[in-house]
Automatic annotation (TrEMBL):
Keywords: Glycosyltransferase, Transferase. InterPro entries: Glyco_trans_34, Nucleotide-diphossugar_trans. It comes from Aspergillus heteromorphus CBS 117.55. This is Alpha-1,6-mannosyltransferase subunit. One of its GO terms (molecular function) is alpha-1,6-mannosyltransferase activity. One of its GO terms (biological process) is protein N-linked glycosylation. Belongs to the glycosyltransferase 34 family. The keyword Phosphoprotein does not apply. The keyword ATP-binding does not apply. One of its GO terms (cellular component) is mannan polymerase complex. PANTHER family: ALPHA-1,6-MANNOSYLTRANSFERASE MNN11-RELATED (PTHR31306:SF10).
Amino acid sequence: MQFALPPRKTPIAPPYARSSRFSLQRRKQFKAVAILSFALLVVFFLLSQLFYTSTGTAAVPVGTPDVVIVTVLDRVRFSEGYTQKIVKNREDYAKRHGYTNFFANLSDYETTLGDAPKSWAVVPAVRHAMASHPYSQYFFHLDAHALIMNPIKSLDSHVLEKSRLESLMRKDVPVVPPDSIIKTFSHIQPQDVDIIITTDNEDMSPGSFVLRQGEFAKFFLDFWFDPLYRTYNFAKAETHVLDHIVQWHPTILARLALIPQRVINAYSKDSSAAGADGTYKEGDFVIRFVGCDTDTKRNCEKEMDPFYRSWVGKTKIE
Protein backbone atom coordinates (compact mmCIF):
# COMPACT_ATOMS: atom_id res chain seq x y z
CA MET A 1 0.00 0.00 0.00
CA GLN A 2 1.27 3.38 -0.92
CA PHE A 3 0.79 6.31 1.33
CA ALA A 4 0.67 9.85 -0.01
CA LEU A 5 3.68 11.70 1.00
CA PRO A 6 3.08 14.98 2.65
CA PRO A 7 3.84 17.92 0.39
CA ARG A 8 7.45 19.04 0.46
CA LYS A 9 7.86 22.14 2.40
CA THR A 10 9.63 24.78 0.44
CA PRO A 11 11.88 26.67 2.70
CA ILE A 12 10.78 30.23 2.90
CA ALA A 13 13.62 32.71 2.86
CA PRO A 14 13.21 35.50 5.26
CA PRO A 15 12.26 38.74 3.56
CA TYR A 16 15.13 41.04 2.50
CA ALA A 17 15.40 43.38 5.31
CA ARG A 18 15.89 46.91 4.21
CA SER A 19 16.24 49.46 6.78
CA SER A 20 13.97 52.43 6.37
CA ARG A 21 17.05 54.59 6.56
CA PHE A 22 18.71 52.80 3.57
CA SER A 23 15.53 53.02 1.45
CA LEU A 24 15.23 56.73 2.10
CA GLN A 25 18.86 57.27 1.10
CA ARG A 26 18.38 55.34 -2.17
CA ARG A 27 15.29 57.35 -3.04
CA LYS A 28 17.17 60.56 -2.45
CA GLN A 29 19.99 59.37 -4.74
CA PHE A 30 17.58 58.44 -7.54
CA LYS A 31 15.85 61.78 -7.20
CA ALA A 32 19.16 63.66 -7.39
CA VAL A 33 20.23 61.72 -10.49
CA ALA A 34 16.86 62.39 -12.15
CA ILE A 35 17.07 66.12 -11.43
CA LEU A 36 20.65 66.31 -12.70
CA SER A 37 19.76 64.41 -15.90
CA PHE A 38 16.82 66.71 -16.54
CA ALA A 39 18.97 69.77 -15.97
CA LEU A 40 21.59 68.50 -18.44
CA LEU A 41 18.89 67.85 -21.05
CA VAL A 42 17.57 71.39 -20.61
CA VAL A 43 21.05 72.88 -20.98
CA PHE A 44 21.73 70.77 -24.09
CA PHE A 45 18.42 71.86 -25.60
CA LEU A 46 19.09 75.54 -24.95
CA LEU A 47 22.56 75.29 -26.45
CA SER A 48 21.21 73.52 -29.51
CA GLN A 49 18.66 76.29 -30.00
CA LEU A 50 21.38 78.90 -29.62
CA PHE A 51 23.68 77.41 -32.24
CA TYR A 52 21.29 75.61 -34.56
CA THR A 53 18.05 76.37 -36.29
CA SER A 54 15.12 73.96 -36.31
CA THR A 55 16.27 72.66 -39.69
CA GLY A 56 19.58 71.50 -38.24
CA THR A 57 21.72 74.11 -40.00
CA ALA A 58 24.00 76.49 -38.19
CA ALA A 59 22.21 79.62 -37.05
CA VAL A 60 23.34 82.85 -38.68
CA PRO A 61 24.91 85.27 -36.17
CA VAL A 62 23.18 88.63 -35.86
CA GLY A 63 24.67 91.24 -38.18
CA THR A 64 26.01 88.77 -40.74
CA PRO A 65 26.03 90.40 -44.21
CA ASP A 66 24.01 88.55 -46.82
CA VAL A 67 26.40 89.53 -49.63
CA VAL A 68 30.20 89.61 -49.72
CA ILE A 69 31.87 91.53 -52.57
CA VAL A 70 35.14 89.89 -53.58
CA THR A 71 37.84 91.96 -55.31
CA VAL A 72 41.38 90.81 -56.09
CA LEU A 73 43.82 93.75 -56.02
CA ASP A 74 47.25 93.86 -57.59
CA ARG A 75 48.93 96.30 -55.22
CA VAL A 76 52.35 95.66 -56.71
CA ARG A 77 51.61 96.51 -60.32
CA PHE A 78 49.11 99.35 -59.86
CA SER A 79 49.45 102.60 -57.93
CA GLU A 80 48.06 103.06 -54.45
CA GLY A 81 45.86 105.89 -55.74
CA TYR A 82 44.23 103.63 -58.31
CA THR A 83 43.74 100.86 -55.76
CA GLN A 84 42.18 103.23 -53.23
CA LYS A 85 39.64 104.43 -55.79
CA ILE A 86 38.50 100.85 -56.34
CA VAL A 87 38.36 100.23 -52.58
CA LYS A 88 36.37 103.40 -51.96
CA ASN A 89 33.90 102.49 -54.70
CA ARG A 90 33.27 99.04 -53.19
CA GLU A 91 33.10 100.27 -49.60
CA ASP A 92 30.54 102.93 -50.45
CA TYR A 93 28.33 100.36 -52.15
CA ALA A 94 28.62 97.81 -49.35
CA LYS A 95 27.78 100.40 -46.69
CA ARG A 96 24.63 101.47 -48.54
CA HIS A 97 23.16 97.98 -48.63
CA GLY A 98 24.51 96.27 -45.53
CA TYR A 99 27.01 94.15 -47.46
CA THR A 100 30.70 93.65 -46.75
CA ASN A 101 33.89 93.50 -48.80
CA PHE A 102 36.63 90.94 -49.08
CA PHE A 103 39.71 92.58 -50.59
CA ALA A 104 42.23 89.93 -51.60
CA ASN A 105 45.81 90.68 -52.56
CA LEU A 106 47.06 88.95 -55.69
CA SER A 107 50.43 88.38 -54.03
CA ASP A 108 48.78 86.19 -51.37
CA TYR A 109 48.02 83.49 -53.95
CA GLU A 110 51.22 83.48 -56.02
CA THR A 111 52.59 80.40 -54.26
CA THR A 112 49.31 78.56 -54.77
CA LEU A 113 49.19 79.52 -58.45
CA GLY A 114 52.73 78.42 -59.21
CA ASP A 115 53.38 78.83 -62.93
CA ALA A 116 49.70 79.38 -63.81
CA PRO A 117 48.60 82.82 -65.06
CA LYS A 118 47.82 85.29 -62.29
CA SER A 119 44.25 85.66 -63.53
CA TRP A 120 43.58 82.30 -61.85
CA ALA A 121 43.68 84.09 -58.47
CA VAL A 122 39.94 84.74 -58.71
CA VAL A 123 39.21 81.12 -57.76
CA PRO A 124 41.20 80.79 -54.50
CA ALA A 125 40.17 84.35 -53.60
CA VAL A 126 36.46 83.50 -53.71
CA ARG A 127 37.14 80.26 -51.82
CA HIS A 128 39.07 82.28 -49.24
CA ALA A 129 36.18 84.73 -48.90
CA MET A 130 33.72 81.88 -48.34
CA ALA A 131 35.90 80.45 -45.59
CA SER A 132 36.24 83.88 -43.96
CA HIS A 133 32.48 84.53 -44.09
CA PRO A 134 30.90 81.09 -43.55
CA TYR A 135 27.45 82.45 -42.72
CA SER A 136 27.08 84.88 -45.64
CA GLN A 137 24.88 83.61 -48.44
CA TYR A 138 26.16 85.21 -51.66
CA PHE A 139 29.63 86.08 -52.97
CA PHE A 140 29.80 88.67 -55.73
CA HIS A 141 33.14 88.59 -57.50
CA LEU A 142 33.87 91.81 -59.38
CA ASP A 143 37.14 92.29 -61.19
CA ALA A 144 39.39 95.06 -59.85
CA HIS A 145 39.29 96.92 -63.17
CA ALA A 146 35.64 97.79 -62.73
CA LEU A 147 33.43 100.32 -60.97
CA ILE A 148 29.94 100.05 -59.53
CA MET A 149 28.30 102.95 -61.35
CA ASN A 150 24.73 102.72 -60.06
CA PRO A 151 25.12 102.36 -56.29
CA ILE A 152 21.42 102.71 -55.47
CA LYS A 153 20.75 99.28 -57.00
CA SER A 154 21.13 96.56 -54.40
CA LEU A 155 22.31 93.19 -55.64
CA ASP A 156 19.24 91.68 -54.02
CA SER A 157 16.64 93.68 -55.95
CA HIS A 158 18.74 93.93 -59.11
CA VAL A 159 19.54 90.21 -59.45
CA LEU A 160 18.91 87.91 -56.51
CA GLU A 161 15.22 88.21 -55.71
CA LYS A 162 13.40 85.16 -57.00
CA SER A 163 11.02 86.97 -59.36
CA ARG A 164 13.79 89.20 -60.67
CA LEU A 165 16.16 86.31 -61.33
CA GLU A 166 13.37 84.39 -63.04
CA SER A 167 12.86 87.30 -65.44
CA LEU A 168 16.59 87.54 -66.20
CA MET A 169 17.47 83.88 -66.76
CA ARG A 170 18.30 83.04 -70.36
CA LYS A 171 17.04 79.54 -71.00
CA ASP A 172 17.76 77.18 -73.88
CA VAL A 173 20.50 79.41 -75.32
CA PRO A 174 24.09 78.44 -76.21
CA VAL A 175 26.24 78.25 -73.10
CA VAL A 176 29.25 79.61 -74.97
CA PRO A 177 28.48 82.04 -77.80
CA PRO A 178 27.81 82.16 -80.56
CA ASP A 179 26.75 78.61 -81.40
CA SER A 180 27.66 76.08 -78.72
CA ILE A 181 25.66 72.90 -79.14
CA ILE A 182 25.29 72.79 -75.34
CA LYS A 183 22.47 75.05 -74.17
CA THR A 184 21.26 76.29 -70.82
CA PHE A 185 18.54 74.14 -69.31
CA SER A 186 14.98 75.26 -69.96
CA HIS A 187 13.56 73.75 -66.77
CA ILE A 188 15.90 75.32 -64.20
CA GLN A 189 14.21 77.40 -61.49
CA PRO A 190 15.64 80.33 -59.46
CA GLN A 191 15.74 78.26 -56.27
CA ASP A 192 18.03 75.76 -58.02
CA VAL A 193 20.60 78.38 -59.02
CA ASP A 194 24.02 78.56 -57.33
CA ILE A 195 25.99 80.40 -60.06
CA ILE A 196 24.86 83.61 -61.77
CA ILE A 197 27.06 84.72 -64.66
CA THR A 198 27.08 86.32 -68.10
CA THR A 199 28.85 85.77 -71.40
CA ASP A 200 30.38 88.25 -73.81
CA ASN A 201 30.52 87.53 -77.54
CA GLU A 202 33.14 84.79 -77.14
CA ASP A 203 33.15 83.18 -73.70
CA MET A 204 31.79 83.06 -70.22
CA SER A 205 32.92 86.11 -68.32
CA PRO A 206 34.14 85.32 -64.78
CA GLY A 207 35.16 88.92 -64.17
CA SER A 208 31.71 89.41 -62.67
CA PHE A 209 29.64 86.59 -61.23
CA VAL A 210 27.64 85.62 -58.15
CA LEU A 211 28.08 82.36 -56.25
CA ARG A 212 25.80 81.07 -53.50
CA GLN A 213 27.39 79.65 -50.36
CA GLY A 214 27.10 75.89 -49.91
CA GLU A 215 28.66 72.51 -50.58
CA PHE A 216 28.06 72.84 -54.30
CA ALA A 217 29.94 76.15 -54.41
CA LYS A 218 32.95 74.54 -52.73
CA PHE A 219 32.84 71.62 -55.14
CA PHE A 220 32.55 73.97 -58.11
CA LEU A 221 35.52 76.13 -57.10
CA ASP A 222 37.70 73.13 -56.29
CA PHE A 223 36.80 71.47 -59.59
CA TRP A 224 37.46 74.67 -61.55
CA PHE A 225 40.84 75.05 -59.84
CA ASP A 226 41.95 71.48 -60.54
CA PRO A 227 45.73 71.34 -61.18
CA LEU A 228 45.14 69.46 -64.43
CA TYR A 229 43.20 72.40 -65.85
CA ARG A 230 45.69 74.96 -64.59
CA THR A 231 48.57 73.20 -66.32
CA TYR A 232 46.76 72.44 -69.56
CA ASN A 233 47.73 75.79 -71.07
CA PHE A 234 44.28 76.97 -72.18
CA ALA A 235 44.59 80.13 -74.27
CA LYS A 236 42.42 82.16 -71.87
CA ALA A 237 43.35 80.26 -68.73
CA GLU A 238 40.50 80.13 -66.18
CA THR A 239 37.98 81.54 -68.68
CA HIS A 240 38.38 78.70 -71.18
CA VAL A 241 38.40 76.16 -68.35
CA LEU A 242 35.08 77.58 -67.18
CA ASP A 243 33.71 77.31 -70.73
CA HIS A 244 34.79 73.68 -70.75
CA ILE A 245 33.45 72.50 -67.40
CA VAL A 246 30.09 74.22 -67.79
CA GLN A 247 29.52 72.70 -71.24
CA TRP A 248 30.62 69.16 -70.45
CA HIS A 249 29.49 68.72 -66.87
CA PRO A 250 25.70 68.89 -66.57
CA THR A 251 25.94 68.83 -62.77
CA ILE A 252 27.38 72.35 -62.97
CA LEU A 253 25.15 73.53 -65.81
CA ALA A 254 22.10 72.45 -63.79
CA ARG A 255 23.04 75.02 -61.10
CA LEU A 256 23.86 77.90 -63.44
CA ALA A 257 21.81 80.92 -64.51
CA LEU A 258 22.97 82.85 -67.55
CA ILE A 259 21.74 86.46 -67.49
CA PRO A 260 22.11 89.41 -69.94
CA GLN A 261 25.60 90.88 -69.93
CA ARG A 262 24.80 94.47 -69.02
CA VAL A 263 22.97 93.46 -65.85
CA ILE A 264 26.21 92.89 -63.90
CA ASN A 265 28.99 93.01 -66.49
CA ALA A 266 28.84 95.91 -68.97
CA TYR A 267 32.10 96.45 -70.87
CA SER A 268 33.62 99.85 -71.59
CA LYS A 269 33.68 100.98 -75.24
CA ASP A 270 37.43 100.33 -75.37
CA SER A 271 36.98 96.73 -74.28
CA SER A 272 36.78 94.19 -77.06
CA ALA A 273 34.53 91.13 -77.09
CA ALA A 274 31.44 92.78 -75.62
CA GLY A 275 28.25 90.96 -76.51
CA ALA A 276 25.65 92.34 -78.92
CA ASP A 277 24.20 94.44 -76.09
CA GLY A 278 27.09 94.31 -73.69
CA THR A 279 28.64 97.79 -73.94
CA TYR A 280 28.12 100.14 -71.00
CA LYS A 281 25.29 102.65 -71.08
CA GLU A 282 24.48 105.38 -68.58
CA GLY A 283 22.53 103.89 -65.69
CA ASP A 284 24.04 100.43 -65.90
CA PHE A 285 25.03 98.75 -62.65
CA VAL A 286 28.75 98.30 -63.35
CA ILE A 287 31.37 99.08 -65.97
CA ARG A 288 34.39 96.85 -66.58
CA PHE A 289 37.54 97.93 -68.39
CA VAL A 290 38.28 94.48 -69.73
CA GLY A 291 41.79 94.04 -71.12
CA CYS A 292 43.10 97.39 -69.92
CA ASP A 293 45.79 95.54 -67.93
CA THR A 294 46.96 93.34 -70.81
CA ASP A 295 46.79 95.68 -73.82
CA THR A 296 49.96 97.77 -73.97
CA LYS A 297 48.10 100.50 -75.86
CA ARG A 298 45.67 101.03 -72.98
CA ASN A 299 45.96 102.44 -69.48
CA CYS A 300 43.57 101.28 -66.78
CA GLU A 301 43.93 104.36 -64.62
CA LYS A 302 43.27 106.80 -67.46
CA GLU A 303 40.28 104.83 -68.71
CA MET A 304 38.73 104.61 -65.27
CA ASP A 305 39.29 108.21 -64.22
CA PRO A 306 36.33 109.92 -65.99
CA PHE A 307 33.93 107.23 -64.80
CA TYR A 308 35.28 107.49 -61.26
CA ARG A 309 34.72 111.25 -61.30
CA SER A 310 31.19 110.65 -62.58
CA TRP A 311 30.57 108.17 -59.78
CA VAL A 312 31.88 110.61 -57.15
CA GLY A 313 29.50 113.25 -58.54
CA LYS A 314 26.55 110.91 -58.13
CA THR A 315 27.42 110.14 -54.52
CA LYS A 316 27.68 113.86 -53.69
CA ILE A 317 24.27 114.57 -55.25
CA GLU A 318 22.71 111.85 -53.14
